[in-house]
Amino acid sequence: MNKQLLLAALWLSPLGLYAHKATDSEATTLKSNAPVQRVIRSIDEDKTRQRFTLSGYVKDRNGEPLINATIYDLTTRQGTMTNAYGHFSLTLGEGRHEIRCSYVGYKTLVETIELTANQNHDIILQNEAQLDEVVVTTDLNSPLLKTQTGKISLSPKDIKTEYALLSSPDVIKTLQRTSGVSDGMELASGLYVHGGNGDENLFLLDGTPLYHTNHTLGLFSSFNADVVKNVDFYKSGFPARYGGRLSSVIDVRTADGDLYNTHGSYRIGLLDGAFHIEGPIRKGKTSYNFGLRRSWLDLLTRPAFAIMNSKSDNEDKLSMSYFFHDLNFKLTNIFNERSRMSLSIYSGEDRLDAKDEWRSNNSSGYNDIDIYENRFHWGNFNAALDWNYQFSPKLFANFTAVYTHNRSTVSSSDEWRFTRPGEKEQLTLTSHGYRSSIDDLGYRAAFDFRPNPRHHIRFGHDYTYHRFQPQTTSRFDSYQGEGMAKTDTIASHSHNKNVAHQLTFYAEDEMMLNEKWSLNGGVNADVFHISGKTFSTLSPRLAMKFQPNDRLSFKASYTLMSQFVHKIANSFLDLPTDYWVPTTARLHPMRSWQVAAGAYMKPNKHWLLSLEAYYKRSSHILQYSSWVGLEPPAANWDYFVMEGEGRSYGVELDADYNISNLNLHGSYTLSWAEKKFDDFYDGWYYDKFDNRHKFTFTGRWNITKKIAAFAAWTFRTGNRMTIPTQYIGLPNVPDQSAEALNFTWNSDGGLNFAYEKPNNIILPAYHRLDIGFDFRHTTKKGNERIWNLSFYNAYCHLNSMWVRVKIDDKKQMKIKNMAFIPVIPSFSYTFKF
């Protein structure tokens, strides 16, 4: 037994692996229009010869590694896929092999390899810019062939469509069109997957967790589409290498940068602008990738308010400024064919400042000045240092050092100066401040071992040091007299500091049992230590695939997930007053289990159909007691939350149709999402985003080589909300518990609203059409100009946001529907150089 196999056996012995019978589903064997038995026979014949390993990277012509590219041996009918770093390993018998490499959007390449020893060989693919049509004959990342349920991979072309809300392409809004996903409030970048909450999604940016994932209260997401290379989205069937959240994983990888040529782009949109540049520092060895996105509204609002205030005779002066920015930087160095290192940095920030100044002066000697200011600052800083090393042709490793810093700051102040005839001048200062920060520091070791084409073994461990620091301050100061002597001070401070240590181990094996069966089995183990208490969880994972022929497969999966951090919020918007907190000694880690199953069919080269069903149960989920206020208390926050349960289930149907210049996709979701909090309501009730039916249809049409169009139509059952079912008159009874009677208390003994059940009505059905057009022009110097015109809610259907309940003069209860968002046109100009 060689050293690498011994290492893998030590890590994976609890799984009971038997290396001579398993295979990698990413090494799924496939031959169009040929019996699968012939494929297995070819493998068995190949095993009689001496075996060697072909390994390397799949790249585009600029040296950018390609994720999920398919490498397939036409001789033995064996294949594999590249990992998250573009690396592949395929063990074959000695002799000549026809190797075919394919990737969506790139020309398929076939090379003849003479294998007489272990060989490192990089494969270079030509992108679609030089091709009229791209046909991928075998894609092992297709839902038909991969083992996992509920996995979707997005390329930059999927994200940067011809349509973009307010001219900014968006990763999360692209995922919102996915079956099984609710988008929450209109315009917001919410993501509610299989009935889960927004904090149950694990967002990873180059392997580092991202806590603030949105800008402008959810209008834009924090991912700059110019630097994104690949997005893997899991909504069920989670592999063992992922953990820490209950509902989904969004693994975003940024591009390394062009190793041979310098090029970039800039874009000017309706609310923001972006600049991107990449190129070599040492050709073929060292590259950089830099992207900057910034809103520019503050450049207009600041002088606009200044001019308005200077010309206004009004005593009330108002000023406001808001901006956000994203900065991505990646530096990659290739030491040799076995070793490379990269440094990835992300910085994102939002700032909203508002000031209201009111002055009152009169001839009687009264002089009042009231200055009210609000400042909201929030953002992230993420850094990851990656080292990839190939220990042998079969063993690939990645070591990562990780640091993340998340911050939210809210401060307000009210300065009131007043002078009255015959009295001393007085000054009162009222201030309030809130700050929350998270610091994560840790490392990750991940190993990728492929002993033969029937096994793909992954194992590793992570360690993270968490520090959570929420704090609030309030202060009142009073001054009087010419020297403004302090006469009174009232101050309160609340702070909390929690330090936690988290250790994670995982192991998984993706294997092929025989010509029809494959599986991915693994386990994720967590140890979480905080405040002298240690929590440990074991989360097994299993996914299986049965493929009776080349055009049909059936899959099923079971996953158990754990979550040790929670987002405490009092609204469905992404506010800086929300903050993340860890599991404490008073609470339990959140847990969920999910089963999913589906059928997948490709009747011909143009169509791909899938049907998936899921059932999910969650326990110890948290809900903030909103009666405490908009801003949760920093100290003893765990006394103001409720623990409950959740359950969701549904069916998802997806259909894809593709020809050379037209791509169509349709999906339908039938789902139920329910919650149960005994402290809140006795029994199960529907979640706010329990959207029973959801239809999505999207289409991309390359009308000519210069004009392309995109359209997306969405229809779903409306969100739910709670309204009173009746109103009753109550006497003014001391110590009467309004919570126990489930109605709103009115101390005057007048009319009171009574509520039968949470989320007891459904808002009108939601539907809208988004369309966009790209107009391309290539200059004489070879640069490309793109004019984009997009329309959100193209036919201007005003969708309900909430309803208002009132009692009219006749004591009748009236409900008024509130809808505001009309058609929103957007325009942008992009120049590529």
From TrEMBL:
Q: Which Gene3D superfamilies match?
A: Carboxypeptidase-like, regulatory domain, TonB-dependent receptor, beta-barrel domain, TonB-dependent receptor, plug domain
Instruction: Quote the InterPro entries the UniProt record gives.
Output: Beta-barrel_TonB, Beta-barrel_TonB_sf, CarboxyPept-like_regulatory, Plug_dom, Plug_dom_sf, TonB-dep_rcpt-like
Record's Gene Ontology CC terms?
cell outer membrane
Compartments annotated for it: namely:
Cell outer membrane
Q: Name one GO molecular function term.
A: siderophore uptake transmembrane transporter activity
Domain TonB-dependent receptor-like beta-barrel, by residue range, is 359-789
TonB-dependent receptor plug domain location, by residue?
169-245
Which Pfam family, any one of them, does this sequence belong to? Answer: TonB_dep_Rec_b-barrel
Span of the signal peptide? 1-19
**Some GO term, biological process aspect, for this entry: which one?**
siderophore transmembrane transport
The organism's place on the tree of life at top rank: Bacteria
**In the UniProt record, does the keyword Cell inner membrane occur?**
no
| Membrane topology designation | Multi-pass membrane protein
Which keywords fit this entry according to its UniProt record? Cell outer membrane, Membrane, Receptor, Signal, TonB box, Transmembrane, Transmembrane beta strand, Transport
Family assignment? Belongs to the TonB-dependent receptor family.
> Can you name this protein?
Outer membrane receptor proteins, mostly Fe transport
